[in-house]
Structures are given as C-alpha cells and as structure tokens.
Specification:
Helix content: 25-40%
Keywords: Aminoacyl-tRNA synthetase, ATP-binding, Cytoplasm, Ligase, Nucleotide-binding, Protein biosynthesis
Strand order of the largest sheet: 12-27-28-29-25-26-13
Protein name: Glutamine--tRNA ligase
Shape: elongated
Oligomer: single chain
Strand content: 15-25%
GO molecular function, one term: ligase activity
EC number: 6.1.1.18
Largest sheet: 7 strands, mixed
Pfam family, one: tRNA-synt_1c_C
Number of helices: 19
Structural class: alpha/beta
Radius of gyration: 31 Å
Amino acid sequence: MSEEKKTLNFLEQIIEDDLANGMPKNKLRFRFPPEPNGYLHIGHTKAIGISFGLGEKYNAPVNLRFDDTNPAKEEQEYVDAIKRDIAWLGYTWANELYSSDYFQQLYDWAILLIKDGKAYVDSQSSEAMAQQKGTPTQPGVDGPYRNRSVAENLNLFERMKAGEFDEGSHILRAKIDMQHTNMLMRDPIMYRILKKHHHRTGNNWCIYPMYDWTHGESDYIEQISHSLCSLEFKPHRELYNWFKHQVYNYSKNQYPLLPKQREFARLNLSFTIMSKRKLLQLIEEGIVNGWDDPRMPTISGLRRRGYTPSAIKKFVETVGVAKRDNVIDVSLLEFCIREDLNKTAPRVMAVLNPVKLVITNYPEDKEEWLKAENNPEDNNAGARKVPFSRELFIEKEDFKEEAGSKFFRLKLGGEVRLKNAYIIKAESLVKDIDGNVNEIHCTYNEDTSKKVKGTLHWVSIKHAIKAEVREYDRLFINEAPDSHQDKSFMDFINPNSLKTIEAFVEPSLKQAKMGNRFQFQRLGYFNVDSDSTSNQLVFNKTVGLRDSWAKQKPKQNTNEKPSKTLQNNNRPAIELIKSYGKKYDRLPEDKQAKAKTEIQELAKQVTYNDIEPLFNTSVKKSGTRIVTMITLGVLLQNGLEKNDVINAFITKALEDKNALLVTEAKAI
C-alpha cells in the first residue's frame, strides 16, 4: 500500500484522503465541462485525461457537460466536434449535460438571492463599474444602485427576463464586498442581457448567467464530488465556494453534497497557441484552412495530421499532473507520436523529390516482385511484394556527382544498396543544357551479400502511383509566439508551414484509406488525408523520423576537458559507441564491463545532438539503446540538463523487458 501511495499524484491523494475521512466511494463523480465556443486543443487533453482517468481509476461516472452560457460565441458545430474528439480519444461519458439545462433553476436561485438581499440590479455603464471596482491594491467603492430595495431589484430583474431592456442597460450582481482583497469577490456579475439565439434554448431566454455563477452551481446540481480545473481558476475558488454555500442553504435537502474545487497546472506547449480566440483568428484571416487544419493544435487537427489517441495519452501521462504551470517542449509530443508509429505504422516506399535512375544492365522488359518487410517492430505485420524494374525513381538528395567520404548515399562511381533489392553502382549521367542531372545510369549486382554503407529507397517508375503530399511543419517559428508585448503572435507565422508536392509511391498504397498511417522509409510518418479520392491520394506528413528543428538544446558543461580519444581510423566517437551497440548485450560479463568503461570514455567526446537521434532506436536493437543510456548517463554527470525528451526516453527504458537497459536507466 505504501508503494502505491508513492505513485499517487496530488489530485489522487486528495481523493484518497476524502475516502479515508468517510466519503463513500459511490459518491465520487467527476465532469469535463468544455465551453462550446471552439474546437478542443492539445491543452484540453490534460483536463480530459485527468477527469476521465480518475473516473476509470475509481470506477466513478464522468459527465460531459457543456457550459453553454454565451450564445454569441457558441455553436452546435462545436458541440458535435467536442463529442467526436473525446470519443476518438477513447473516453466514454456517463451523461451528456448542458448548463442550459439548469437555466430555470439558476434563475430561481437568483430570485432567492435578491430576496435575501444578496443580489441586486446595477444600471451603470461598464466603464463606471470598472472604475468603482478598484485595483488589486486599491479597494473598490459601492455603486449608486447597490442599495436598491428588494422590490425594485425583483421588478427590474423580472423585466430583464421579459426582454423589456436593451443589452447593456442592466446587469444582476451578487452583493458580496466591494472592498474585498480578491477582486473577483467585488460584487461579481451574475446575469447580463443578451438578445441572441441560443443553440439549444432558442429564444426562450434573453438574459444569460455568467460563467462563475453557472459553473459551480451546475457542479452542485450534478453532485460532482471533485470539480477539477486548471490553475487560472484558483482565484475563482473563493467565489465558487461563496455561491455554492448560498444555494446549499436553499436546496441542501435535494442536493446534499457540496463539490470541492481543486486546481492543476494547465498544459502549455512551446511553438503553440492555445487561445481559442487566437486560433479562430488564424482561421478567419486564412492562415489555416479551418479548425481541423493539420497545422492546428486542435485534437481534430492532430487527428487529421496522423496523430493517434495512444500517442496523445502517452504525452499527457509523461507530462504528469503538477501544481505549477510550465511550458512543455513540443518535441516531447513529436517524440511520443514517433514512438507510437514506429511500432504500428507499415513501412512503404515513396519518393518526394524524384530523379530518374536507369539500370543499364537490367533487361528492359523484365520486372520482379520483391519481398519487403512491413514493420520490423511488429512480428505479426508480415510482408508485401514491391515491383522492381529497369527504371526507378530515387530522391534527388540521395545522389551527388562528387561527394566526400562521409556521404553514404549514391555518387558517381560509388555503390549503394537499394532497399529490399540489389546493389547498384553509378556509372554515368544524362544532363540537360543547364547541367542538371536528368538521369543516373547505373549497373546492378545480384550479389546482395556485399557490404556497402548506404541504403536508398526507390519506386519503380512504371508501377509508381502519383500522390499529393502535404509536408507540414510547425505553424510558428517562435517558441512563445504570444508572449511578446511589442509584437503580435501573427508576426511569428512560419511561411513554410505547408509545402505541397507531387510524389510517387509504391503501388501497395493504391487501396490506402483515409486515416491509414505509414512510414515512408527514410522520410518520416504520413497518413491519408480526408481530401483523398479514388483517383488522387493525398498524404499528410505527421512527423519526421528525427527532430529537424534547430531548437534550443539542454545546456552542457563545456568546461569539461575531453580525454584522449579512443578512436579507430579517426572515426567519430558516436560512431564507435554505436558499433558497441551491435554486440553489447551479447558480450560475456567481463568483456561487457570493459566495453562499458570504453563507452563511458568515448561519451566524454559526444554531445546531446549526437545522441538524441538514438532515442528513437528500434526496440529490437536493445544493444544500441543500452549504450545510448550509458552515454546519456555520462553527459548528465558532466552537466547536461534533463529535458522532456530525455525523461521520456528514460521512462520508456524503465518499462523495457531488457534487464541491462532497465539497470542503466535506473542508474541515472
């Protein structure tokens, strides 16, 4: 039991304490209460995961309640999108409810507050009320209408409901304390006049309750045991409690349980905008194509881009539940989807920037169907056949007429292996009048046992299928685009966030369906977009195989003097470490100890940039993952600071079946 308690987050501990102090377990009830004024985004996934996760942990119901109190901004489209997104994440709600269900009850309670002298109608302008409210350091002052009689307040409020007054002419305020240190307690607004059509109640109401008045009372009506919300609502807790105690006096026989509000840190993400208002601005100004644009941080956008529910849940789990706000590096989210798709996405070949390659000694009329593994991470994924012929497409970037010794792709006179096929040697070129390479002429060798350093992907030209590929990148070029006082977040729009190209893919993709996800070998992860048709495949780039952004790396201690190198033939230290990874977990114990010492010495010569790509190493390559962990341990000892990606790599290692890897992970 003590071991389990150590793993509880602070919200779970609160619940455990309440249960220990006598709360019946069958009284636990949670809710997720979105406002239907926009699509849910990645920030909401934390709140969703917390409430529904607690529901699953304690076998308690979780309500989905729409706090629909502002008809000027709310639409049925948003309600439908929210339900769709939560269901896609894999959660099931106990009841679908709306704050508008409680409009009459809220109105009746407001009447009782007026009768008890705890609410009044104010007829000042909003500017006058703002002046009277004071500042955080200066108390407010009573307004001229604060002491209206109960009869006058009732009369005005009923006429407000009847539609006799214009918008802005009157409001209903709670009568608390205009000198209160918490400005939210200085006679907060309860109702305003809004002559707008409501998506559920139509034109039945022309006064609408404010969020603070509605939210807590809706929790109370639903008998929510723990009202969990993000930290920006912490100052509201005092008002939440004041309102709930007032209505408890009126309805305690009907609703005996008082909800408890508790706050957790919201999810903030680098290079990302979370404000619904600003996200809507991106849509209205044509920067993106709707709420589900794959560049948007909305759940709908992430789904369309190719993210999976399991990757998003893993991300939220890794971030954890905290009491203080912080900004999570978006690279952690990208790391989670890479990890997930690496296990599940079939491997296929596609060429995005083609150049023609002709195998001159391969018969013109010959074609072969070669066996290709679908996913080396999945033993049950099987294999497929890919066609091979004399003329192929390869990536332009995979060929150089002349190149140095560190270019391990194709160069004139050099050899490479074609993935799942033969070894080829570049013999000659065909160029246009400007000197651009139009064709690479090669010869092939059927002896595939020969060792060559480079392996290229390819597609057979006569079998290839044309496809539109949308290469998405981050929407903003600044880590915190909405934190600059002298600039708008719109100033940091990435002009290269979308690149549309014509690509060629292998024929196995002809039957690919919307939402199918693939790894385009050596390129990244892609999925079939909803714009695809039977005549035109459209793929979205989900994420690259590695983080290509020159983001700020963890600080490393540069004062550490490098030791003498253990390099062989001037090979970089990271390459020598990787070579140890091919055999490390198969070495006898004495040789393993010696190898570890040598790896630790080599690790003093590598940087974080060198090892971060190895965090995505295949699960099957346990040796490489072990030597990566050993190397990381040295870097951390020498001053490297942990970041979210490092923590995720360590967490994953601790869950691995390989005992050596787990031991090294525990050591750091």
